[in-house]
Structure formats: structure tokens, C-alpha cells
Design brief:
Order of helices and strands: EHEHEHEHHEHEHEHEHEHEHEH
CATH superfamily of the largest domain: Succinyl-CoA synthetase domains
CATH topology of the largest domain: Rossmann fold
Largest sheet: 6 strands, parallel
Structural class: alpha/beta
CATH class of the largest domain: Alpha Beta
Number of helices: 12
Shape: globular
Amino acid sequence: TIFVEHGDKSLDRNGKVACIVQSGSVGVEALGYASNTGYGMRAFVGLGNKCDLDEIDFLYYFAQDRKTNCLGFYLENIEKGRQFLTAARKASKEKPVVVLKAGRTHTAVSAVSSHTGKLAGSDNVISGALKQFGIQRVYDDEEFCDATKALSMLSGAPGNRVAVLTAAGGYGVMCTDFIEKKDTRAPLVMAKLSKDTQNRIKEATFPFTACENPVDITASADDRMFSESLDALIEDAGVDIIICITFFAPPGITENLIDIVADKIKQSDKPVIVFTKYGPFTDNSIKNLFYAGVTAYPSVGRAVRAARFLVERTTIKKRFEQEV
């Protein structure tokens, strides 16, 4: 299946994600679809039934590969569990390791046996072991692509305080709901903006701008207002992560905002994640953001989930540092 017509379309020459999958179809179709909005893949490996090389061989290789900064695995069984976990833990000290482990239910375990001729193992044991060894688990192909994209393009967040900048008030409210929703992966909180930050945003925008988090500069805003408001959030010491809700339909917002946001990100030590929609042009807008170096998603829930992946990664790294 890795030789299907579109099998090479998601290979980006500057990508840094190594994808090792036990199902060629899962890899080709999930990653191929992700490439519609930009996905930086370094390499694609189809393991099949692992008759010669297995996930551990490729884990060793890509952990040492200087052009790889994130490893993603789709696995249906892990035969050499201890060896894999030990190697993945060592790799995770330097690079994020993401695992999509299928075969969680009784019926799915039987399907794994039929598909690969192997046994899947206890899911509760596997889940606990992955967490213990600093491996980030995801549960479907969309999560797999979103996690590896975020972890490859952005460094871990310094904390879990999130600021939201939007020109669409409704999406700002929805984003807040997603942020404050309880989630076992990593907790997020809404950042409390300083008075100085709020004043800067007010001066850069309108007297009626909602300057408390979420910041709503309204659909009357233009590129300059968005840019200066983003500067204020980046420079606020009480903010760890910024989610920008960026729409190109308002008359004052142009596609120049892509380069503006990209330049801010290059100078920021805080991760900036973009959520955007632009009708039938959504995929193309996200791809343009990707090629400018901006991590973007087509739904507010996925943007917030990406922030959780970053916070989870920071927690893992801190735990490793404390063990030294």
C-alpha cells in the first residue's frame, strides 16, 4: 500500500517526523490526508508483519538521525515490550515519541491477530507502560497526525496558561470551553492578562475591544491590530501558550497576516497555535501557514488539543530532568 498513486505526496522535503507504521493503509491515507494542510514528514516506514525488521530497529535508527525531531508509531502489537519501552524512553529524552496503539477492545484484539498474526496484549498494561516511559499515546489517526505535527514544529510549552486572540467572538468562547474542559492528557487554564497587556491591546485596537482573555478584537480589526495584539500577548509573563483564531474573511484581514504571524513565532519563546477557517479555501490557507512555519488546524478543538500535547511533552521532559 505504500506504493499507491498518492503514496509519495505527503513527503515534505523539509519534514522532521519519522512515521513507522504496522499498517501501510493507515500510514498512506492518514498522512496523505494530513498533507492537504501541510505535514512535514522526514520518512515513512511500513513494517507489515515485521518478518525481518521491527519497530525497535527503526526506533534506534531515527532516534539518532539528526534530521528527525519527532518519532511516530502506529502499532498493533509490541512483541519485545521491555526492549521497545527502554529504547523509546531513551529517545524521548531528546525527541518526542508518539504511539498510536490499536487493538484496545476484545474484538479489536481478535482483529489484530487476523491482520498481523500477532497478539495485541493488555491495553491497560500498555497504556500505563507508555505513560511511565515518557511516550505520548494517541487514539486515532487524526490525533496521530496532529500530535506529531505540533511536537515537530513547536517546542514544549513553558507552562499551561493559554491566551486566546480572536477576531470572532463566538469562536473565542468555544475555545475557552475547550481549554477549561477537564482532560486527563494535560490540564490547561486561561491565562490572566496583566493590566499593561490589556491597555496595550486597547490602544492598538478599539475602545470596545474585549481585552480580557479571550481577547476579542472583533471582525473590524486589521492586520496591524492583530499583529500588535499578538505582540502584547507574547510579551506577557503570565502567558505560556497563545492560540490565534485567524480568519481571512473580515475586510481588514489579508493574507499578509500569515507572514506577520510567522515572523512573530520565529521571535517568540512561547508556542503560538493557529485555528483558521476560510470556507472552501480552508485547507489551502492552513497549508500556506504551514509552509510559513506556522502550526495551524481547521477546528478550535484540534488547536486546543495541540496545546495539550505540548504541555504533556513539557511534563515528560521535566520528569526526566528530575530523575537525573
